[in-house]
Amino acid sequence: MNTRLLLIGCGKMGSAMLEGWLAKGLNADNVYIVEQAEAADKLSTRYGIHGVTDVREVPQDFIPQVVLFAVKPQILPEVIENYKPLVRAETVFLSVAAGKTITFFTSHLGEATRIVRAMPNTPAAVSRGMTVMYPTDNVSQAQRDMCETLLATVGLVSWVDDETLMDAVTALSGSGPAYIFHLVEAMAQAGEAAGLPSEQAMLLARQTVVGAGFLLDASDETAATLRENVTSPGGTTAAALNVLMDQTNGLPELMTRAVEAARKRSVELAG
C-alpha cells in the first residue's frame, strides 16, 4: 500500500486506523501526521511515520493522495483553512469528523475540493467498526477505492448516494454502540431485580451480548432466524420476547423513537 497520506489528528480511532494500515503494508515513509508536539514525537518514534505540529512543516514536494481529518468536530473549524493550499485534483479529503457536512468543507476549501464524508463508529478502535461514506461527484472511482481500502482496515464499509442519509447512519450505526452498551446495563439491572448479585448479573449480561454478537458475525443466518432458533414455543425465551416485541410499547417502537431522536439531533447539529 503506497498511498501518500496526511493524517490530521491521531487519537484513539486515528491510531487504530494507522496501526491497521501499517499492518497491511502501508509505507510509513508516506505518512505525515499533524498532532501536538508531544504526540507527534511519540507517533514518529512508535510507528516510524513523520510527525509534525503544523501542516506547513510538511515538505512542499509531498503531495498527499488522501488528507484525512480525524480531529474532533469542534476543532475542525479552527484548522481547516490551513489545508486549502492542498486542494488539487489528485488529492481527496476524507473526513471522519461527526456532523461536518460537504457544505462545511466546500465553504472553507472551495467547490473544487474532492471530499468523502465518512461516519465510523467506536468499534473501529478494535477493527470491528462500521463506516458509511458519501462522496462528492468529482471524487474519482480510484479515489473512492482508496478511501474504502483505508477504512476497511478497521471494519466494514458501505456507501450512500444521498448525503441526507448520513443523519440516519449517524443515528443507527454511529450512535448504535451506545445503545448496545445500555442494553447490557439494562439486562444486568433486570438480573439484579431477579435476585442475582450485581457483579454476577453484569458478567452474565456482558458476556451474553458479546457472545451473541460473535455468533451473529460467524453465522450465515439472519438475526431473525437466530432468534427463532433459541425460542421454544411456550418457553422462557418466548415469554420474554412477548414483552420485548410488543408493537405498542416494546423494543421495536422504543428503538424507532430513539433512532429518530438521534437523527433529528444530527440534523440540528449539522446546522
TrEMBL record:
One of its GO terms (biological process) is L-proline biosynthetic process. Keywords: Amino-acid biosynthesis, Cytoplasm, NADP, Oxidoreductase, Proline biosynthesis. Pathway: Amino-acid biosynthesis; L-proline biosynthesis; L-proline from L-glutamate 5-semialdehyde: step 1/1. Residues 7-99 form the Pyrroline-5-carboxylate reductase catalytic N-terminal domain. InterPro entries: 6-PGluconate_DH-like_C_sf, NAD(P)-bd_dom_sf, P5C_Rdtase_cat_N, P5CR_dimer, Pyrroline-COOH_reductase. It catalyses: L-proline + NADP(+) = (S)-1-pyrroline-5-carboxylate + NADPH + 2 H(+); L-proline + NAD(+) = (S)-1-pyrroline-5-carboxylate + NADH + 2 H(+). GO terms for molecular function: pyrroline-5-carboxylate reductase activity. The keyword Thylakoid does not apply. Its main location: cytoplasm. It is found in: Cytoplasm. It is an enzyme of class 1 (oxidoreductase). Pfam families: F420_oxidored, P5CR_dimer. Its EC number is 1.5.1.2. Residues 163-269 form the Pyrroline-5-carboxylate reductase dimerisation domain. NADP(+) binds at I8, G9, C10, G11, K12, M13, A70, V71, K72, P73. Belongs to the pyrroline-5-carboxylate reductase family. Catalyzes the reduction of 1-pyrroline-5-carboxylate (PCA) to L-proline. This is Pyrroline-5-carboxylate reductase. It comes from Thalassospira alkalitolerans. The gene is proC.
